[in-house]
Amino acid sequence: QVQLVESGGGLVQAGGSLRLSCAASGRTVSNYGMGWFRQAPGKDREVVAAISWSGASTYYSDSVNGRFTISRDNAKNTVYLQMKSLKPEDTAVYYCAATKCASATYYTSVGGMEYWGKGTLVTVSS
User: Fold this and answer.
1) Which of the four, 10, 29, 75, 77, has the lowest number of CB atoms within 10 Å?
2) In Å, how far from its chain's centre is CA 80?
3) Residue 47 phi/psi, 5° resolution?
């Protein structure tokens, strides 16, 4: 089993930055596709960014492309999401997720992920 714990959320003003971390335990996730997802009140959970096991391939949703950066440190079993130029519409609970499947079809979709963290709340004030 893989346990994922997110941290780094909080309250920030529009235009500000935050860095989320996702620490994995239970087993190494160095060969797992990883992703960050978010869910705003009343909305479906959606993918924000995802990264292949090696870090060579990344994916960003249109809404965050150019503002967010996903990265991973396999030696630390940790994935990061650097968020810049935050907007009020970025307010949501952010979840980290993992899948053993190497295909981007899986690690860029909610249904393709096998393990989930409990989430961290990001609130962006206007």
Assistant:
1) 75
2) 7
3) -75, 140
pLDDT on residue 103:
86
Contacts of 45 (CB under 8 A, 6+ apart): 37, 38, 39, 95, 110
- Would you state the pLDDT for residue 96? 98
Q: Which of 110, 103, 98 is nearest to 72 (CA)?
A: 98
Report which DSSP code applies to 63: T
List of the chain residues with pLDDT < 50: none
CA pair distance 49, 81, nearest whole angstrom: 8
Q: What pLDDT is attached to residue 67?
A: 98
What is the rounded distance in angstroms from the CA atom of residue 70 to the CA atom of residue 32? Answer: 14
* pLDDT at residue 105, as a whole number: 86
Whole-angstrom distance, CA of residue 77 vs CA of residue 1: 14
What are the counts of helices (DSSP H) followed by strands (DSSP E) for the chain? 1, 11
